[in-house]
């Protein structure tokens, strides 16, 4: 059709209502617009979408507020489907039982740096605003710890939270079922991951001594976690569903770092405590002998992987499928749980690009996702809808935030 019009113009054919002088030249002037108009409309639509989600303008710039975008997993079975922050299906969580968590305690390591900041006037360069609240560096660390505790109290109301901390840190948490336990050690930033393993070992040693002295009453299982996680389901069921493991680790399909140290479950029997302690002592030895150059970050995960992979019978190909499995390693029965369920990370990294499983148990706000953790708690606190909150997390996961 377009070729016919051009040929007729060249032959001098005059179209009705068009003079051969200025009329056909005007038509030729508009011809490129007619050709490229559909492409122009597409570009305008794309621009309208990008401004709607309000993405950072410069590549690599971190957003200072939530940025919602398309969510992964739409149309996939057993994945959360969302429209904005509205869930289109329901998760398979069992949260809400008033008796949930009675025999489980969560253990995390947390310390405070630069406590003198309390006596210094807040500088605007250090402030971060989340919702209607402004945080200094110290305050936002405490706010993340507070969100960690609140998520646990919603999902598992009867569970306890134990915070292992530096005796010199001025940490006071006035909350029901929350205790702080000072443990001597080296809590500098460069040694914190190393100290975390040492603190876990010291804690398990103390629990074993209590059991030997029959001081402890009801048996408690322990879940050692980072403080930037949100528990969104009853994890006490883990110890009933898998009844024979001594400790549990979470894994992902990652060649160099298949194991994540942000979630370690330990059965509260005497044998479970002993086997977990011995296993972590092996990890600590591997850490100090092989991975001290990575002591600030990742050294613990590399040491975990080395201890597991060095066992002669272990097949690392089992990490490629997101299914739980068990393996006996140096006398310890270890349950390997997929990160996709027990250590799910918003999709900025760690390969979680296929959406959020409907039966997710734990959401881990690693690295720069910590703002998203505070935003998620604020959203849940106002809406009391877990599924919609998970849509908020899923839709915001690909954004880099400011802390």
Task: Outline the secondary-structure elements.
Layout: H1 2-11, H2 22-53, E1 82-83, E2 86-87, E3 104-109, E4 128-130, E5 133-135, H3 137-155, E6 160-165, E7 178-182, H4 192-212, E8 221-225, E9 229-231, H5 237-241, E10 247-251, E11 259-266, H6 270-290, H7 299-309, E12 325-329, E13 332-338, H8 339-342, E14 362-364, H9 370-383, H10 386-396
Parallel strand pairs: 3-6, 3-8, 6-7, 10-13
Antiparallel strand pairs: 1-2, 4-5, 8-11, 9-14, 10-11, 12-13
Helix pairs in contact: 3-9, 4-6, 6-7, 9-10
Characterization of this structure:
The protein has 403 residues and is of the alpha/beta class. The protein folds into 2 domains: 2-53, no CATH class; 82-396, Spore Coat Polysaccharide Biosynthesis Protein SpsA, Chain A (Alpha-Beta Complex). 37% of the residues lie in helices and 16% in strands. It is built from 10 helices and 14 strands. It is globular and about 50 Å long. The termini are far apart.
**Any low-confidence stretches, pLDDT <50, length ≥5?**
1-20, 36-57, 116-120
Helix content: 25-40%
Q: Give, in spatial order, the strands making up the sheet with the most strands.
A: 7-6-3-8-11-10-13-12
Q: Number of helix segments? A: 10
Number of domains: 2
Strand content: 15-25%
- Global Rg: 28 Å
CATH architecture of the largest domain: Alpha-Beta Complex
Termini, distance in Å?
A: 57 Å
Shape: globular
Structural class: alpha/beta
DSSP summary, beta strand count? 14
CATH superfamily of the largest domain: Spore Coat Polysaccharide Biosynthesis Protein SpsA, Chain A
What is the top-level CATH class of the largest domain? Alpha Beta
| Mean of pLDDT | 83
Secondary-structure element order, as H and E?
Answer: HHEEEEEHEEHEEHEEHHEEHEHH
* Largest sheet descriptor: 8 strands, mixed
Q: Find the CATH topology of the largest domain.
A: Spore Coat Polysaccharide Biosynthesis Protein SpsA, Chain A
